[in-house]
Amino acid sequence: MNEFQLIARLTQGLPANPAVVVGPGDDCAVLDLGVPGRQFLLKTDAVVEGVHFTAETPPEKIGRKALARALSDLAAMAGTPIAAVVTLALPPKFDPDWVATVYDGMNALARTHGVAIVGGETTTNPGGRLISIALLGWATPGQIPLRSGAQVGDAIFVTGTLGGSIDGKHLDFEPRLAEGRWLAAHFAPHAMIDVSDGLAGDLRHLLNGAGVGAALRKPSIPVSAAAKARARAGTNAKPALLAALTDGEDFELLFTVAAGDAVKLVDGWKQPFPHTKLSCIGKIVAGTGITLNDANGSQKFNGDGYIHFA
Ligand SMILES: [Mg+2]
Questions:
Q1: SS3 for 249?
Q2: pLDDT of residue 139 exceeding 50
Q3: Quick one: average pLDDT of 153-167?
Q4: Quick one: DSSP state of residue 218?
Q5: CA of 72 to the centre of ligand 1 (A)
Q6: Do 100 and 49 touch, CB atoms closer than 8 A?
Q7: What's the whole-model pTM score?
Q8: How far apart are CA 238 and CA 220, in angstroms?
Q9: Mapping DSSP to helix (H, G, I), strand (E, B) and coil, where does residue 78 land?
Q10: How much distance in Å is there from the Cα of 97 to the middle of ligand 1?
Q11: What is the dihedral of CA 62, 63, 64, 66, to 10 degrees?
Q12: Cα of 90 from ligand 1 centre, angstroms
């Protein structure tokens, strides 16, 4: 059983109440707490030693990453963060300086984005170190892009470049909060998600959420310099394009807008975000799955992104 099968099993018949606007299955839950002009976003995310970081990872980068992952999910809902609580699981013999330095990294990023750290929990765990962050944020009702809204004919966009994140970006990425809010305010993306498991895997979430397919233009997929360098050096068995499609932890925004807005979006993007690449990589089509097209023809792409316990 992989993580998506497990999630499907666990999320059947969960308790709900009238505050729930969007329950499990999107980047954050959306709650209506009766505050005019605001809905609230709730998210939890964990980093685990041996999966998301190693004993060699600088601890300040581990703390930064733990919070940045949750902020990236908030960005995908066009949210503004408010506050976080932190759960630490530590082996019985832990290094207090290591923990303090994890907090230094987390606190610095929190200050940048106006996030208050308002408490948490520490517990012992003989199996290894884990940092879990629960994050609260808010967004404007009617301007919260979900995973399920893609429409046939939509243009598909992605921010930044993709692949080879393991060479550093997974510790240093900037959550696209300003970009997410700007997009929601100006272009009302029909669907949006952050790319955490890989372009193909996360695009499939959008496709499955709307019962549609995608036709991607191969030369338009923004392959990162890191993915190209890895392919050249032979450090990755994957060709660079495949790395861009399937490597995890890029934390870019993947979204769809009405085709008629695509040119306006590309033009409008440059002024607020001159240093963030924006690529139109294809379009939403009737059908299912992902098709890759180039001058030589088209092929179905059945590869996937990173799946935990696949
Ligand atoms: Mg996400």
A1: coil
A2: yes
A3: 95
A4: G
A5: 7
A6: no
A7: 0.95
A8: 18
A9: coil
A10: 31
A11: 80
A12: 26
